[in-house]
Amino acid sequence: MSILKLENISKHYLKAAGAKQNVLENINILIDDTDGKGKFISILAPFASGKSTLLKIISAIEKPDGGKVYLKNNVYDKPIGKIALIPERPSSFPWLNVKENIAFGRRPNSSSSLGDQEVFYKELIDMVGLSGYEGHFPHNESLGFRFRISLARALAAKPEIILLDEPFKRMNSETKDEIYEMIRKVIKKYNLTIILATTNITEAVYLSNKIYLMKKNPGHIFEEINIDAETAIIKGLDRHDRFLSLKNEIEKSFRSAGENFHTEVHI
Amino acid sequence: MIELQIRRRPSAIYVVTYFILWIVLFEFVLPVNNVLPKPSIVIQSFGALWDEYHLAVNYLNTTASVYLSILFAYLLLHFLSHFFDNRKSVVSDFIHSLNWFSKFLPGILIGFLLIYWFHDSLYIEFVFALLTSFFSFVIFFQKRRAHLCHEYVDAARSLGISEISIRRKVIWKSLQPEIFNHIFVLHLYIWSLVIAFEFIYGKFGIGNIFRLALQYRDLSAMFSAFLIVGITIFAGRGVIIFLKKKFAFWE
User: Fold this and answer.
1) Tens digit of pLDDT for each residue in A121-164?
2) Count of domains in chain B?
3) Are B152 and B57 contained in the same domain?
């Protein structure tokens, strides 16, 4: 069964002068759930290629001008709370403390008892490494800290898919390493699918089971690369031959597609 | 480094310096003049202000008009903010037109009209202050709403949170630091307008005390009223800072 299917998605914006600008054209993505395990999918594309727009369409925050989006074979056109988006800039609410932020993600119609909810929140707080910080407010905290809150809040909604819109871009390498490890655990524990939009080739290869390559003007998926599940998410992959060959393969694909795309190499 | 030291020097030092200068100059050096009253006479005039100018009632009238209007306008905006959230609605166009008018018409002119229409009303001053505060809030809200941090809204929307909850729990909350900053500006503006309104209306309020003191050429009463207004605004500002630190601390 497919978890997510995008069928001929297109989107355009009107420029100030009234001219039409195609942002996305004929996007087709199919993410299946044959093995029943969680997956990490990346959409690797240059800057300003429509990645964020695509994620907003997947989360139904924006409507496509053409095409349909399916979640488990059901079409949806408004947010259903099953696909949580974590935007590029910190989205944890600064007016709520860590625990309140996480509780915000809980469905209003959730029938679990108060005790169960407390256990669940504690589990999420432990999972993202924020034990002891339950009462902290995030406004003065680091990007990594705020990302952890956003991730736990997304998990509190018990989603099928979590969308990450380049949240690691401005984090330092130590924080990134910790968060990659945490994401690996999250996927394994909750069997969910995470889709990352990124411009960072290392990040994409390091984390993903599958990478969609996307070019711009208009945004269009031109190739998909399956990465062996065994080699994905292995520490030190960037030193491995497989990583280098994948990186070369991806860069070659971008060049063949006429995209002058220099990706970041280091995590 | 020098700049930092200058910034750290508290304004209270200037206030105390001016105060001492006033005492030295006008109590001892120039006790008889038409510029500022003698400090000892100002102290004595507080009694006259209380009895002859009915300070208590007038003070309560002005402060109630200023602070209750700001409070009610804030609460009204809170409850009605969803009407002003949609930038393509008729309400939004109406607010936009008010904003356009406010660039060319000083708010006190509306006060003239209200005085003309309701010249015997006890509450018209409060209504004037409330309307001014409310529309100032609404215009500000609409402007800031357009530049809201969309990450908060997008993340909440993707979690399946209802639009009503997003307006109440995300949009309204995220604008609080800026709304409190606007209250700082509005606070002084409403004080100025209310005093001007009372001065013209000539029935009650601190503005009316100024009017009477001018009529009687009572410089010490006028100066005492100045001090009372200044101290009240200073205290009011302190309360707003306290509330901001308590309820909108994340700026």
Assistant:
1) 999 999 999 999 999 999 888 899 999 999 999 999 999 999 99
2) 2
3) yes
Among the partner residues A88, A104, A139, nearest to B250 by beta-carbon distance: A139
Q: What value of ipTM does the predicted structure carry?
A: 0.87
Query: A151 near A86, Cβ under 8 Å?
Result: yes
Can you tell me which residue has the tokens 């006033």?
Answer: B22
Closest CA to A209 of A188, A190, A179: A188
Give me the total of CB pairs closer than 8 Å, taking one residue from chain A and one from chain B.
69
SS3 for chain A is CEEEEEEEEEEEEECCCCCEEEEEEEEEEEEECCCCCCEEEEEECCCCCCHHHHHHHHCCCCCCCEEEEEECCEECCCCCCCEEEECCCCCCCCCCCHHHHHHHCCCCCCCCCHHHHHHHHHHHHHHCCCCCCCCCCHHHCCHHHHHHHHHHHHHHCCCCEEEEECCCCCCCHHHHHHHHHHHHHHHHHHCCEEEEEECEHHHHHHHCCEEEEEECCCEEEEEEEECCCCCCCCCCHHHCHHHHHHHHHHHHHHHHCCCCCCCECCC
Residue whose entry in the numeric block shows the structure tokens 């195609």:
A22
What CATH number does the domain containing B174 carry? 1.10.3720.10
Dist. CA B126–CA B124, nearest whole Å: 5
Instruction: Mark whether B173 and B203 lie in a shared domain.
Output: yes
pLDDT 10s digits, B146-205: 888 889 999 999 998 888 889 999 999 999 999 999 999 999 999 999 999 999 999 999
In angstroms, the CA A219 to CA A241 distance is: 30
**Under an 8 A CB cutoff, do B152 and A91 touch?**
yes
CB of B250 within 8 Å of a chain A CB? The answer is: yes
Both B64 and B19 in a single domain?
Answer: no
Question: Given CB atoms, is B170 within the 8 Å cutoff of chain A?
Answer: yes
Would the CB atoms of A95 and B176 count as touching at under 8 Å?
yes
| Nearest CB partner across the interface for A85, out of B154, B173, B251 | B154
Tokens of B116: 């003309």
Residue pointed to by tokens 């989603």: A159
pTM of the model: 0.84
Kind and range of the H or E element at B239?
helix B219-247
**A13: three-class secondary structure by DSSP:** strand
How many residues are present in chain B? Answer: 251
Residue carrying structure tokens 């409310």: B134
Query: In one letter, which amino acid is B147?
Result: H
- Is A120 within the bounds of a domain? yes
By the 8 A CB rule, do B115 and B201 touch? yes
